[in-house]
Amino acid sequence: MTEPVKVLFVCLGNICRSPSAEGVFREEVRKAGLEDQILIDSCGTGDWHVGKEPDSRAIAAARKRGVDIGDLRARQFRSEDLDEFDYILVMDRQNLADIRDIWRQNGGTEPVLFLGYGRSGYDEVPDPYYGGNHGFEHVLDLIHEASEGLLTHIREQLA
Ligand code: 4NP
Hints:
Elements: E1 5-11, H1 17-31, E2 38-44, H2 56-64, H3 81-84, E3 87-90, H4 93-106, E4 112-113, H5 133-158
Parallel strand pairs: 1-2, 1-3, 3-4
The structure holds 4-nitrophenyl phosphate (4NP).
Residues 11-17, 44, 48, 127, 129 line the site of 4-nitrophenyl phosphate.
């Protein structure tokens, strides 16, 4: 049995976008029967929400799509993640700049924009924290589309 592929989603607070991405991608992976071969986690660049559950709006929006993220708890990114994970997938350019600063010092897996695996025309997942519920639906649409592209890519690597 080979080592699982390790995927890490990163946003700012780890309570809206990256736990949503973790939940949606985990569901895609489960449906594909690859849960033993792909390990998934998420974290935030900031530490304000460490130990907290996802934002209630993110939990509700995900639940409407059959994805349960209520058990996830926020943690902060650490430089060791660059050595441990095979994919470091960030939500926006600020996340990219923040993780790239650490990557330049540390080396390891280079962080990339998650939506690079999608075809929506967007390259960033907008921060929904200060917006209304619609923002969370849009986030899930973007995440779902990119998750399919990511899974296709990883399956090609596993084949
Ligand atoms: P996230 O959203 O990065 O998608 O988890 C945010 C959550 C919290 C804050 C900002 C963005 N905040 O400023 O506390």
